[in-house]
Design a protein that fits this description.
The complex is a heterotetramer of chains A (164), B (374), C (348) and D (186). Chain A has 2 helices and 7 strands, in the order αβαββββββ. By secondary structure, chain A is of the alpha+beta class. In chain A, the strands form 3 sheets. Chain A has a 3-stranded antiparallel sheet, with no helix packed on it. Helices cover 49% and strands 13% of the residues of chain B. In chain B, the strands form 3 sheets. Chain B has a 3-stranded antiparallel sheet. In chain B, helix 5 packs antiparallel against helix 12, helix 5 packs antiparallel against helix 15 and helix 7 runs antiparallel to helix 12. Chain B has one domain: Cytochrome-c3 Hydrogenase, chain B, CATH 1.10.645. Chain B has 16 helices and 8 strands. Chain B is of the alpha+beta class and 374 residues long. Chain C contains 13 helices and no strands. Classes of the chains: A alpha+beta (164), B alpha+beta (374), C mainly alpha (348), D alpha/beta (186). The interface between B and D is large, with 40 and 36 residues.
């Protein structure tokens, strides 16, 4: 019997305590950010959209090897000796012509593993986060500007499923 | 006699895989007799993403983003376990700054993870407000992480032999600021939820895991400690220098009903957040100088060997069994998930309860399907 | 209604020339339309209010965009969206019952508005059994809920329907018993009579009288359970039963359930206001109807406050609260009220 | 607390014929036992008061086909731990790749039930006497065992394509026109 009344009392008391807390929260400042009108400033390390400054790319393919989900596709060919020498922004000589540098952003897992090995730091993840598109194929970012000059090699046979 | 006459009255209720409170895509086959649940059959695998097969096809550092995606609530802890296992395989020793940063991030992540687990548990029991209060706090931790490494959920922070980023300038002060304003929130949560009579009634004598069951089913983490066993890998098998920190291991005391109930497990998590705060404070105080990339190997290529290494994640003991054949890619990566083992206990503890109790139990064992199904 | 007829006779030229049938029928129609307007309008405001209250309790802002000022038009936009949605009836459902159920639930709440005394003369019909009528008609909703649960042919819905039936029937008993403690001293079942009995200052309200003070809380809890609000919202417990009895409903049919829920919230608050809080009585600077609505709104706010604070009970605990806590208390209260009335009669 | 060598010694005394081989030099010492005796040995390991391996930390399968260093075989690995004495051991069972089977240890540690189901699902190793040997992660009617090294992913599952489509980049390289690249355009 004693327990019965104790239970009733406890129920009422704890309910009132809870109501006090929620009641106080009615008057605290809310932490909502009104998104489309107020935009979030992301920190500089934010890993969002990938960007490649193709002028600095030397075509070494380290990013392609690092990518755990294979979303970077690269084709290169040797530049002719006769062509004028070009250099990346940090002075690295560019010996390969990058004819394909495709990033399929719909496959990207935003792990940032591709940007670390990049010797000229031309591949970066930018803090830009609004890049939704209407069609999935528009997520294929094609950075290469050079056209292949040598006759194209026969297309490689498709990767067997489950293997690398 | 009576029971037999009504034997045909049982109904099979298919709960999940799309259900608001099965914490992902768990499917439960319930045999119900009115509100009473006669039998529970869990069906898992709806979130199977072939982690182990993937891992056999990528180089060692490439596995880390996939580790993050197993227990996506506690990514820092997941990748930490993997990084430690690979380091053990290679016999690699990291410097003190890396160790301290790892502890710091693991504990921050533990707070974030427990906040989510407590919040969703409140929602399972029917209380919405604590859920959003928890999420508000969790966002602050995630903001810190984003500032640190650029991602909010899947960090890819712990690398083999180091961490990806050193902390940015002002990170310490910001973390301390977070801690000062977070401490009162725990007290508020106690008042709003933990000691609420309805919450106690719903959880305090439901889903009891006995000590024997817990050991036989290899229940670990807060679920084990809720049953009164003071077992924490950070104390028993210290890694990352946990032995040099001062902290307590909270255990369930059975204050409100039998020991090992849902409420005990829930309350262990609340108390663990307090301990984590202490750990973060110690880590911030000592933070030694050093280069976080100092020991990162150019090429991760362990010699032929194998190792089973386990760490204490917010959900319990996460084990990695790595087999290396001396190549650049792991020969075998097996993950022992803490949620997997505790979920296997669900039929035993849920039988005879009510439909509402099933929800209370699933919430209290704090499962993440991504880790169970891998 | 008599008031409306008088008003029409005075204001509209030639109204008394109309056929007798029309003279009676037109005020009826007008009253009905007014009620319908109220039943549709109150939930719109209440839903917006609930979203705002919940949001601010959770440190959010809630709807902010539609309509400009604090998203006031959000519910209207939602209503339009629900109207335009495809009407889906599950293939295996009992089509007739499935379609009928939301209407039954809605009609129950709607019909009860007839006897609510908004003001001294603002009442559609002052039935002499008003309290009994409200108790009876508001329980009609449970029939609709069971229909919905059964007709959906969904196990969650069935669970919800069964839970609702058990819950509403159990809580009806202590509620009605506690209401009796008001009826005994007044000596009438008419809503207006009850309000009039509380005239003459705040302390004549029944909430400030010895026995009826406790009865108020019993009625409040009981009606909270009858309208399926937290902590008694097990029929639609979304974390257990997905959405309970309206799991399979969408579009306009779902909107009916939704409207009915909020209309019922207002209804039971208005009932408690009438019985215990002095109805339309209040200091003279506001008209009677304003006081009535203000008081009822305050009670609705407390309902929302409770919902965003408390977890949900389990079925057996719910029954425990009804049969083992509220019922004994309400019996004692009836006994006390009767004794008090006899004692007062004996010693004038 | 017992060292691995002491545990091995106890086992060798108790089951002299069943210990196939053991290694003490590697990172984590292990003992390989005969497949038929595994349930018996596990029961002993758990019930012997001096050993008292009361938890099964992990139970994994390994397929050694294609390994550069190991002979071709299947392996089931038991990682045991004693909460009471705080010592560990690794128990291994080697099995042929054709029709592998061994007794279940479900009766010793309840968790083995699910672990063994997973190994069965992924490697097709049969656990004799298991109470509920169904697939656990894959659908019940999935063919073949995915974690075997020679596993080939089926083209379709129940009429649904199971392999991934050709990626956009590959299609673009083959000359398909995918429209303008929004990144370059804007």
């Amino acid at each position: 019997m004693k327990r019965y009344f104790k239970d009733i009392f406890q129920s009422i008391w704890t309910v009132l305590q809870g109501m006090k807390i929620t009641g106080l929260h009615l008057f605290t400042r809310s932490c909502t950010l009104q998104y489309p009108s107020v935009k979030w400033e992301l920190p500089e390390r934010s890993r969002m959209r990938l960007f490649n400054k193709i002028e600095d790319c030397i075509g070494c393919g380290q990013c392609v090897r690092a990518c755990p989900v294979d979303c970077i596709y690269m084709t290169t060919e040797k530049r002719n000796k006769e062509e004028p020498p070009i250099f990346a922004a940090d002075g690295t000589p560019i010996k390969l012509r990058v004819t394909q540098f495709d990033i399929d952003m719909s496959l990207c897992c935003y792990c940032n593993l591709c940007t670390y090995p990049c010797p000229t730091h031309c591949l970066v993840m930018t803090p830009e986060y609004e890049f939704a598109v209407q069609a999935k194929q528009d997520f294929l970012y094609r950075f290469a500007k050079d056209e292949p000059q040598a006759p194209p090699k026969p297309a490689p046979s498709p990767r067997p499923a489950g293997a690398r | 006699m009576q029971v037999e006459a009504y034997a045909g009255e049982e109904m099979v209720l298919n709960m999940g895989p799309q259900h608001p409170s099965t914490h992902g895509v768990l499917r439960l086959e319930l045999e119900t007799d009115g509100e009473i649940v006669r039998n529970v059959i869990p069906h898992i695998g709806y979130l199977h993403r072939c982690f182990e097969k993937h891992a056999e096809n990528i180089d060692y550092p490439g596995v880390i983003p996939f580790c993050d995606r197993m227990d996506y609530i506690a990514s820092m802890n997941n990748s930490l376990g993997y990084a430690l296992a690979v380091e053990k395989l290679m016999g690699l020793e990291v410097n003190e700054r890396v160790k301290t940063l790892r502890v710091l991030m693991a504990e921050l992540n533990r707070i974030a993870s427990h906040l989510l687990s407590i919040g969703t548990y409140a929602m399972d029991i029917g209380s919405f407000t604590p859920f959003l209060h928890c999420f508000r706090e969790r966002e602050k931790v995630l903001d810190l992480f984003e500032w640190l490494c650029g991602a909010r959920l899947l960090y890819n922070y712990n690398w083999v032999g180091g961490v990806s980023h050193d902390i940015p300038e002002g990170f310490e002060a910001k973390t301390r600021e977070f801690m000062t304003q977070f401490e009162p929130v725990i007290a508020e949560m106690d008042k709003l939820l933990s000691y609420n009579k309805i919450f106690l009634e719903r959880t305090a004598d439901v889903g009891i895991i006995s000590e024997e069951q817990a050991l036989s089913h290899n229940v670990t983490g807060p679920n084990l400690r809720g049953s009164g066993i003071a077992w924490d890998l950070r104390k028993e098998e210290p890694y990352c220098g946990y032995e040099t920190y001062e902290f307590e291991v909270p255990v369930g005391l059975g204050e409100h009903g039998p020991l090992g109930s849902c409420w005990d497990r829930y309350y262990v998590r609340i108390r663990e957040m307090e301990q984590s705060l202490g750990l973060i404070r110690q880590a911030l105080d000592r933070l030694p100088e050093g280069d976080v990339h100092e020991h990162i190997p150019r090429r991760v290529r362990p010699a032929k060997s194998e190792v089973y290494d386990r760490t204490e994640t917010p959900r319990g003991e996460l084990g990695y069994y790595l087999v290396s054949d001396g190549g650049l890619i792991p020969f075998r990566v097996k993950v022992k998930s803490p949620c997997f083992t505790v979920l296997s206990l669900l039929p035993a503890i849920a039988k005879g309860g009510m439909v509402a109790d099933i929800i209370a139990i699933i919430g209290s064992i704090d499962i993440v399907m991504g880790e169970i199904d891998r | 209604m008599e008031y409306l007829r008088e008003l029409l006779t005075q204001q509209v030229a030639g109204y008394d020339q109309l056929p007798e049938v029309l003279q009676i029928f037109l005020p009826m129609l007008l009253a009905c339309l007014l009620c319908l307007g109220l039943v549709a309008f109150i939930p719109l405001v209440a839903i917006w209010g609930e979203r705002k209250v919940s949001a601010h309790m959770q440190d959010r802002l809630g709807p902010m965009r539609v309509g400009g000022w604090h998203g006031w038009a959000q519910t209207i936009a939602d209503g339009v969206k629900l109207l335009l949605k495809e009407d889906i009836v599950p293939a295996q459902a009992d089509r007739l019952l499935f379609k009928l159920a939301p209407l039954v639930v809605f009609a129950g709440g709607f019909a009860a508005f007839v006897v609510l005394p908004f003001g001294e003369s603002f009442i559609v019909s002052d039935l002499n059994i008003g309290v009994l009528y409200i108790a009876a008609i508001s329980s009609l909703g449970v029939v609709g809920i069971i229909m919905a649960g059964w007709a959906s042919n969904n196990k969650y819905a069935l669970f919800g329907g069964m839970r609702a039936a058990a819950q509403i029937v159990s809580y009806e008993i202590p509620t009605v018993l506690a209401i009796l403690t008001v009826v005994i001293p007044v000596g009438s079942l008419s809503m207006q009579e009850i309000v009039r009995a509380q005239s003459g200052g705040v302390f004549n309200w029944f909430i400030f009288q010895p026995v009826t003070f406790l009865a108020f809380w019993v009625v409040y809890l009981g009606t909270l359970a009858e309208v399926n609000r937290t902590p008694f919202d097990i029929p639609e417990a979304e974390s257990e039963l997905v959405a309970g009895y309206h799991t399979e409903y969408s579009g306009m049919r779902f909107a009916f359930f939704f409207l009915a829920e909020y209309a019922n919230m207002f209804l039971v608050s208005a009932l408690a206001t009438t019985l215990f809080l002095g109805g339309w009585h209040g200091p003279g600077f506001l008209p009677g109807p304003a006081w009535f609505i203000l008081k009822a709104t305050a009670l609705v706010f407390v309902q929302m406050w409770l919902r965003w604070t408390l977890p949900r009970l389990r079925v057996d605990q719910l029954m425990h609260v009804s049969w083992k806590v509220l019922l004994p208390i309400s019996f004692l209260l009836v006994l006390a009220a009767g004794t008090l009335a006899l004692w007062r009669e004996g010693s004038p | 607390m017992k060292q691995a060598s002491e545990i091995l010694q106890t086992l060798q005394e108790q089951f002299p014929d069943q210990i196939a081989k053991s290694s003490q030099e590697c990172l984590q010492p292990f003992v390989v036992v005969a497949p038929g005796a595994v349930a018996e040995i596990c029961a002993f390991l758990k019930n012997d008061p001096a050993l008292a391996f009361d938890t099964l930390m992990c139970l994994s399968g390994v397929d050694y086909k294609g390994s550069k260093t190991e002979p071709e075989r299947l392996e089931v690995v038991y990682h045991l731990f004693s909460m009471r004495h705080r010592h560990k051991m690794v128990l291994k069972v080697e099995l042929p790749r054709e029709d592998p089977a061994l007794p279940t240890v479900e009766a010793v540690w309840a968790i083995a039930n699910w672990h063994e189901r997973e190994v069965y699902d992924m490697y097709g190793i049969h656990f004799d006497g298991h109470s509920d040997l169904r697939r656990i992660l894959c659908p019940d009617d999935w063919v073949d065992y995915p974690l075997r090294k020679d596993y080939v992913q089926p083209e379709t599952y129940r009429g649904m394509p199971a392999a991934a489509d050709k990626q956009f980049a590959e299609r673009a390289q083959e000359g398909e026109d995918l429209g303008t690249d929004p990144y370059q355009a804007g």
